[in-house]
């Protein structure tokens, strides 16, 4: 367990659906909570259109699945230790948009979606909901997805857009003073795949006979961005059990015996594996040659 550093560090994460936070940033949240930082998680939808993996829950309507996933994320936050979780605009304000695939198997926007789908959200309206949270919590560091939503899910892309717009609006003294005093975020980070570790895990999975993509081999360069672009890596190892318990808690969405999640577990166990970030906006890290091990490095933290 790491010794507390300061209680003035404040981290805010914006994710699209319940379980996204546990598969992508659980170690980051657990690490900074252990150091005494304030961690706020914003979830944009209830994940009503996620694939249901448990047969006895197959009858759930989207509304029923959404309510069930509220319980799952509440339990996951208990495992990680997050006590400040917010649904953007309130639970159910924005509906899961769903996802389809194009002729090349890539994530794509479905032809039909609910009227209140997050993908259809008015960008200014959704950003203002986040502006109010940002001005109230005053995070120095914010985490969300890259412009492609990491793999193309419409709600991930929209979460990126809303977060980046809200970051600029929150800092403007002229914008919506009724939403609180302006707040300048020091650094926005985009969580991403650690390309090198994913490629290593893929080779190990193949050696073990784990069939991930039956229709063809993956080019290891497709696992993520150029590693030279990584600005920070938060090691998974110290928080591995927390990460696994939080993710396994999402029984409606995650089958840890599935080949992909076996591969994912292999990746998590590799030496040096960790949750990896790109710089999306704001203050660069002091050393551009080596990824930082601290998301707040170089930021003058103030209350």
TrEMBL record:
Its EC number is 3.5.1.103. InterPro entries: GlcNAc_PI_deacetylase-related, LmbE-like_dom_sf, Mycothiol_biosynthesis_MshB. GO terms for molecular function: metal ion binding; N-acetylglucosaminylinositol deacetylase activity. Gene3D superfamilies: LmbE-like (3.40.50.10320). One of its GO terms (biological process) is mycothiol biosynthetic process. Keywords: Hydrolase, Metal-binding, Zinc. It holds the Pfam family PIG-L. This is N-acetyl-1-D-myo-inositol-2-amino-2-deoxy-alpha-D-glucopyranoside deacetylase. It comes from Tessaracoccus flavescens.
């Amino acid at each position: 367990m790491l010794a507390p550093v300061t209680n003035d560090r404040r981290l805010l994460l914006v994710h699209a659906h319940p379980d996204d936070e546990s598969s992508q940033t659980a170690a980051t949240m657990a690490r900074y909570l252990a150091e005494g930082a304030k961690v706020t998680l914003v979830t944009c939808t209830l994940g009503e259109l996620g694939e249901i993996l448990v047969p006895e829950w197959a009858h759930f309507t989207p509304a029923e699945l959404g309510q069930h996933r509220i319980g799952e994320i509440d339990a996951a936050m208990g495992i990680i230790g997050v006590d400040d979780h917010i649904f953007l605009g309130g639970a159910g304000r924005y509906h899961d948009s769903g996802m389809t695939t194009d002729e090349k198997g890539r994530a794509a926007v479905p032809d039909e979606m609910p009227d209140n789908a997050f993908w259809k959200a008015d960008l200014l309206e959704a950003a203002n909901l986040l502006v109010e949270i940002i001005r109230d919590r005053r995070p120095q560091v914010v985490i969300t997805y890259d412009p492609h939503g990491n793999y193309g899910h419409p709600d991930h892309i929209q979460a990126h857009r809303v977060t980046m717009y809200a970051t600029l609006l929150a800092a403007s003294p002229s914008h919506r003073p009724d939403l609180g005093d302006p707040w300048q975020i020091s650094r926005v980070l985009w969580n991403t795949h650690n390309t090198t570790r994913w490629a290593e895990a893929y080779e190990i999975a193949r050696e073990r006979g784990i069939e991930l993509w039956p229709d063809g081999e993956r080019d290891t360069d497709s696992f993520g961005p150029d590693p030279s672009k990584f600005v920070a890596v938060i090691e998974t190892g110290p928080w591995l059990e927390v990460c696994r318990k939080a993710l396994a808690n999402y029984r409606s969405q995650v089958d840890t015996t599935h080949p992909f999640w076996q591969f994912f577990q292999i990746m998590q166990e590799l030496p040096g594996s960790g949750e990896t970030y790109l710089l999306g906006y704001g203050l660069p890290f002091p050393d551009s040659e080596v990824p930082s091990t601290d998301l707040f490095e170089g930021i003058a933290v103030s209350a």
